[in-house]
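# step 3/5: fold
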Amino acid sequence: MKTAENRIPGDLDHSALIDRFLRVNQAGELGAVRIYEGQRAVLGRKGAKAAPLLKHMAEQEQEHLDAFNRLIAERRTRPTLLSPLWHLAGFALGAGTALLGEKAAMACTVAVEETIDEHYARQAEQLGEDEAELKDTILKFRADEMEHRDIGLEHGAEQAPAYPVLSAAIKGGCRLAIWLSERI
């Protein structure tokens, strides 16, 4: 099956669907890079327990952002107009949760990555064999995001203060950011 082959009236055509995927994924990876920059600004000092974990995850997120920046340019897709907002909001979310402590920073990671897992899974389901390379990229990045989620869980995310509330708020914000970035 090809991408957007079975679309119905009102569904995006192939080109519009791919543009939407690239736009939102670039925005999301920008936000992720900035979240880790904010967390590292607070928790990244030498000798801090979280520093090497945050560095590892930040490096993978930068790899993801670089890939989507390249794809945006190659496919001549317009980035979201909200990038300046995600630049600031990502850093604020990362620094803010890190100020609450390492476990809250890990709770942020878990909430974000669980939301992105669902997001990337939906995208992969919509891509046909004509977009095999993009699908492979998304699935590889999805696996990285699940690794980050697992790191967060292994390092006390669920013991963060008010974890259910914090997690729900971050997931809701991520879902809103996804919806907006797909469209604006």
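# step 4/5: annotate
The helical segments are 14-43, 51-74, 83-99, 102-126, 132-154, 163-183.
# step 5/5: archive (pending)
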